[in-house]
C-alpha cells in the first residue's frame, strides 16, 4: 500500500458565470446563441497529497471552493485542468439518504440506497443488521420512510453511507445529524475507521471538530490553496486571518 | 467497450432503480397494477366508438386468422405505441427528476433513463399478457408467435431506449423538449397506422401519384416512420397470425440499432457535464 491515499495534482475547475443563458429554444434561436458567459475559477491550481490513514480536513470561508473540491474528489465534477488520483476504493457522503423513495419501506430503501452508493446486494445483506442497528430505527424498518421523523430519516441514510466501508471516505458537513447520542456513535465510527488505517477527507466549518479529528488540514481561500500541513498551525493561521 | 463494462457493473443498481419505479408507481392505490391497463383501455373505448362506430373505419379481417374485432385489432398496435410513448416521455424527464441525486452521488448516469425503460417494460408485459388472454379467447392462434413476439418487443424497447437517451440529454439543455414532446407524440401517433389500416394510406398514395414531379410517393414518406413497421409486425403476428415480411423485421432491427447507438453516443458525450448543467 502506498503512503498516499489521494493525490490532488494541480487541479483547476471553472464554472461559467452566465450573463445571459438561453435555456429555451425560442430564446436560443432569437438571440442566435446559447449563452454569454465568463469563466469563474472556483479552484485554481490546487495541489496536495492526502497521506494514507490520516483524517484530512478542508477548511476555508464560504465560497472558498471546499465543496467544489469535494465534488471533484467524489467524481461528480470533472476538473478542467489537473487530475485527482486515488489509491484504494473511495466513497463520498455529500448528502445522506440520497435517492430514498418516500413510499418504500426502510428495508427497501437500505437496499436501494446501498446500490446507489455502489454496494452489491450481497454486501448489503451482510451489513444489513449492522446498518439497522446503527440507525436505531429497527422498530420502524418496515414502515415507509415518509412516516419517519427527520432525525430517523437522516440516521438511516447515514447508517447506510457509513457502512459502504471504503478505503477513502469523503464527507461533507453531514456530521451534525441526530442527537448527542447518535453523534457520539458517529464519532466512534470515524475513530474505528481511522484505527483500521482508512483515510477520511472532511469539510466542516466547525473548528472544534476539525481540531479534534484531523491530522492534516488544507486551507482554501477563493479557490486557491493557502496552506496545507499539520492541523494545529494551519487552523491557527486560518482563525488568525479571520480575526 | 469499457463503457459497456461500466454499465454492466451497475446492472444491480439498474434493477434496484427499476424496482423503485415499479413498486413506487401504484403504491397506495386500490387497483394497483390494474391502473396500467386503464389508459390503453380508455383509449380503446374512445377510438372504437369514434373510428369504428361513427367514422366506420373497417380494417380487413385477420388473414389467415379470420378475426374481425376492431377493439382487439386496435389494441394489438395501441399497446406497443403506449409503451413507446411512456418510455420516451418518462425517459426524457428522468435526469431532471433525479437532479438531486446526480449532484450528490457519482454513479453511472445512464441507469436513470434505463430504469424507466425497465419499469415500462414491466407494465407492458402485464398489458400484453392480458391482450394475449383476450386474443386466445376470441380465437387467435397466438401460441407459436410468442417467441417472435418477445423478439419484436425487445427491438421496440431498444428503439425506445435510444430515443429516450437522446431526449433525456436534450431536456437538460432545453426544457422545451418535454413540452414539444407531448405535441410530437400526438402527431406521431396519428402518422402511425394504429387507429386506421395502412392500406388506406397506400390507396390515397396511388390516387395522388408522384409528389411535385419527384419520384417520391406519399406511401414512401409514410414508411419512413419506424413505428409503422413495428406496428405492422406486431399486428401481423398477434391479429393476423401471419409471418411478417422479413424486410419489415430488418427495418425494425436497423432502426433499433441505429437509435440505441446514437442515443448512447449522445449520452456518453454529455454525461460528465450533467451535474453542472442541471
Topology:
The complex is a heterodimer of chains A (243) and B (278).
Chain A: E1 4-21, H1 25-31, E2 35-51, E3 55-59, H2 66-73, E4 81-86, E5 90-93, H3 106-116, H4 121-135, H5 150-162, E6 168-171, H6 180-195, E7 199-203, H7 207-213, E8 216-221, E9 224-230, H8 231-242
Parallel strand pairs in A: 3-7, 3-8, 5-6, 6-7
Antiparallel strand pairs in A: 1-2, 1-4, 8-9
Helix pairs in contact in A: 3-4, 3-5, 4-5
Chain B: H1 2-9, H2 11-25, H3 35-54, H4 70-97, H5 99-104, H6 111-137, H7 146-173, H8 176-190, H9 198-208, H10 218-222, H11 226-240, H12 246-271, H13 274-277
Helix pairs in contact in B: 2-6, 3-4, 4-6, 4-7, 4-8, 4-11, 6-7, 7-11, 7-12, 11-12
Fold and architecture overview:
The complex is a heterodimer of chains A (243) and B (278). With 243 residues, chain A is α/β, with parallel strands linked by helices. Chain A has helices at 25-31, 66-73, 106-116, 121-135, 150-162, 180-195, 207-213, 231-242, and strands at 4-21, 35-51, 55-59, 81-86, 90-93, 168-171, 199-203, 216-221, 224-230. Chain A has a single domain (4-10, 51-242), classed as 3-Layer(aba) Sandwich (Rossmann fold). Helices cover 37% and strands 30% of the residues of chain A. In chain A, β8 and β9 form a beta hairpin. The model of chain A has no long low-confidence stretch (mean pLDDT 83). The longest helix of chain B is centred in the N-terminal third of the chain and has 28 residues, at 70-97. The model of chain B has no long low-confidence stretch (mean pLDDT 89). Chain B starts with a helix and ends with a helix. Chain B is mainly α and 278 residues long. In chain B, α6 runs antiparallel to α7 (146-173). Chain B is built from 13 helices and no strands.
